[in-house]
Amino acid sequence: MYPNKNFPGRKKEAAPMEEAFQELLKAYRLEGKFKEKSLIHDWAELVGKTIADRTESVFIREKKLFAKINSGPVKRELQFNKSKILTLIEDRYGKDLIDDLVFV
Prior knowledge:
The chain is an alpha+beta fold. It has a single domain (31-103), classed as GMP Synthetase, Chain A, domain 3. The protein contains six helices and three strands. The chain has helices at residues 17-27, 31-41, 43-47, 49-53, 72-80, 82-93; strands at 55-61, 64-69, 100-103. The chain has a three-stranded mixed β-sheet with strand order 1-2-3.
């Protein structure tokens, strides 16, 4: 195999598991998808049990997070706190993952 500057080959020293995993995601250009899946998985932790119990589904499409909420009052409360939730997401996953939240 020929040396490639994007994938330099094996490193001589051992790397911690998390660092090695991050390098692997970067090498295969899967960082964004991994962050999206992590955010969907962590939705209940981000918004709390009450909101999570009233959330039917969460998905991401074109940098928008869609959350299907089965309670009108909870949906309105989320609309009022949209910027706060976006800030939580940005702090945890970075600014480039989600641009908007849509509550359905």
